[in-house]
Amino acid sequence: MRHFLVITVTLIANLLATPVFAQSWPTKPIRVVAPFGSGGSADITGRVFAAYLEAQIKQPVVIENRPGANGIIGTGAVKNAPPDGYTIQIVSNSTHGANASLFKKLPYDSIRDFEHVGLFGTFGSVAVVPPDSPIKTLADLTTFAKANPGKTFYGHFNSASHVGGALFALRSGAPIEGVPYKALGNALADLYGKQISVIFLDYVASTSHIASGKLIPLGVTARERHKVWPNVPAIAETYPGFDQIVYLGLATPAGVPADILNTLHRHVVGAVTDPAIRSRLEGLGIVISTPSRDEYNRFVRDQLDRWAVYVRDAKIQPE
Asked: CA 83, CA 50: separation in Å to the nearest integer?
């Protein structure tokens, strides 16, 4: 009887311990890993969310940029972090979609090793050139590449910039070759220095550069024109069926308690529905969406399949 009581008391104590732990969260700073360099879409969106979260939870929320290997370095660090809710990650179609098809051996499983919390939204990419480029249109890009075989390059630092450039080269028949970079800043430096000719840059990262006149947009990868640049054509207008969108969401290492995950989900929804933040994100070209956690998990699985098709269609061989 005494043995039975000990087991019962222990079980009750364990059951009570979990909600007490989760209810005490957070009691210290939270780290938000953006697995790409500063100025990219993960960094920009991560900082917007971090400021909102910090105001809500009254604890410091710190962005940590961990660029490299198409987001693999930062994502691997999050996978191996303690599942206590104090390390979270801005995830994307690169880290949790395309990488499974772009690399033969990925040091993490996009589904098994993470808890997927919520979606910030989706958006397209835009082919951009510097203002002094002789390339002014998509047709110019194709003509220039065909006139300069082996001398026309697109820079890429994530899956959107890689696949977008490869798909355009394939559909247009233009001999444009990809050059990999660790981060957006490195690619932009070479674009301005004319070592490369074009970058397929997502809306979020490109908006301020285009608004300031530092980059000129040629065409967008989404099926329809971007409302912020109504005079910039969709690539699909020239090459029907061209349609490439990307996404940003939030994840944690696998094993984080469910009530912490649910709290984080509520904060993601709260951020993207806050009028000021929603206006800012929509101004960056993000199409806001607020799926449930279950719906978002299905979305991530669907993106794995979608990006496998993109990579296959672009004829990119896994590394």
From this structure: 19
For the purposes of burial, counting CB atoms within 10 Å of the CB of 289, is it exposed (0-12), middle (13-18) or buried (19 or more)? middle
| Predicted confidence (pLDDT) per residue in 235-293, tens digit | 999 999 999 999 999 999 999 999 999 999 999 999 999 999 999 999 999 999 999 99
**Any idea which residue has 């979606």 for tokens?**
119
Global pTM? Answer: 0.85
Instruction: Tell me, rounded to whole angstroms, the distance of Cα 41 from its chain centroid.
Output: 7
Distance between CA 114 and CA 132 in Å, rounded? Answer: 44
Task: Specify the residue for token string 């490869």.
Answer: 166
Distance (Å, rounded) from C-alpha 23 to C-alpha 9?
21
The edge-to-edge listing of strands for the beta sheet with 61-65 is 61-65, 30-34, 87-92, 246-253, 114-123, 287-288
